Amino acid sequence: MKKFLLYMLYFSLIYDVIRLVYRTITKYSLENFGYDFFSVIRDLIAIWIIFKVTRPKKKRTKFKHFHNAAIIAEMEKEYEKALDIRNEGLKLSSLNNVEHVSLYAGNGGTYLYLKDYNNATLCFDKAFELIQKEKFPYDEQYIEVIDSYVKANRKEDALKLVESLLQRQSYHKKFKKLEPVREKLLT
């Protein structure tokens, strides 16, 4: 159907262009020129719209495609769409662990924003499981992550997470900032 419509528009465009050129050369009239000119423009716009509407969307194949598309969806307050985009990215086998972790953590952050603490902690579990042997820097958001475990009634898991993060002081001293969080969980 699309091809047929495009062929018809191409033929109409060719006919209108030839008619415009012929009338301009032979018997130039301003009233005919305007009609012929706008019919050419109309055909071009119709062809452009058909291409724009029926053009296939680019497939996301790389981490940055999924990551950027999810961030854009979140900026537009389309949180479910952002989660779907990241989940689609998590299905790719070509991603490395750090990229998987980033997508899981992004989903966890989205769920955290939506106050869905159970799903947030499940995402954080997967992220920390994948990166447990990697070295990564301290981030202030770890306190919010730990708090999400408490809000999901997983205080024991929150304590285990704090303990594992505190062990990372050997290569990054800022993890020591989590000691007050551990003390608070123990009380």
Layout of secondary structure:
Elements: H1 2-25, H2 30-54, H3 63-75, H4 79-90, H5 97-113, H6 117-131, H7 142-151, H8 155-166, H9 179-186
Helix pairs in contact: 1-2, 3-4, 3-5, 4-5, 5-6, 6-7, 7-8, 8-9
Structural description of this entry:
- The chain has about 190 residues and is mainly α.
- The protein has nine helices and no strands.
- The chain has helices spanning about 1-25, 30-55, 65-75, 80-90, 95-115, 115-130, 140-150, 155-165, 180-185.
- Helix 3 (about 65-75) runs parallel beside helix 5 (about 95-115) and helix 7 runs antiparallel to helix 8 (about 155-165).
- The N and C termini lie far apart (about 70 Å).
- The mean pLDDT is about 85.
Quick overview:
With 187 residues, the protein is mainly α. The chain has helices at residues 2-25, 30-54, 63-75, 79-90, 97-113, 117-131, 142-151, 155-166, 179-186. The mean pLDDT is 86.
Into which percent range does the helicity of residues fall?
A: over 70%
Q: Count helical runs.
A: 9
SSE order: HHHHHHHHH
Tell me the total number of β-strands.
0
Give the integer mean of the pLDDT values.
86
The end-to-end distance, rounded to whole angstroms, is 70 Å
Low-pLDDT segments, ≥5 res: none
Strand residues, percent: under 5%
Radius of gyration: 29 Å
Q: What global shape is seen?
A: rod-shaped
